[in-house]
Design brief:
This protein is of the alpha+beta class. It has seven helices and four strands, in the order ααβααβαβαβα. The protein has one domain: NADH Oxidase. Helix 2 packs across helix 5. The chain starts with 20 loop residues before the first helix and ends in a 28-residue tail after the last helix.
Length: about 210
Amino acid sequence: MNTVTAFPPAKKASPDYPIHELLAERWSPYAFADRPVSAADLSLLFEAARWAASSYNEQPWTYFIASRENLGEFARLLSCLVPANQAWAKAAPVLVLGVVNLRFSKTHKDNRVAVHDLGLASANLVMEATARGLSVHQMIGILPERARELYHIPEHHEAWTAMAIGFKANVDEMPAEMRERDLAPRQLKATSQFVFTGSWGQPSSLADVRS
């Protein structure tokens, strides 16, 4: 019997301060296990997205979803990704396309934070997924005009991002071309590189008590 090798502990974040466990556990795999995601779990993910904060409670996001259980719909959504993302995302059990309304529904004025709010909704979804043992890989590499054509996306709305949702593949299940990317150590900026005070480039001691 083959021994299945799980992911190494190095993929879990090593934060400088003790953040919530879910935030430390979250990362974006390229390789997904051949295992479906239940409709019950997906309902909970989108319920989490529903309760995200948004400017004026506009909730400017719309999601299109497709699973590999419906190959026609899955192929339609997959075709809205750039080829480099199609290459690995085709193995995910669920794909999602995120669309934003770039105008406020009541005033019809430009909503300058619509994309920000889509990000908040998707972050809620990602954290709920992580809590349920699922993983999400978000993508900006999509074909917005193809999405508009295929899904009849109306004026002032725009396809902005996509997500692959599923269960992480174990090392022994990974395609060779994904192994290096998924096993590479995580590298992120220190807070001193993006939290400033006084002037640009001056780190704030409020975000790093060691400074």
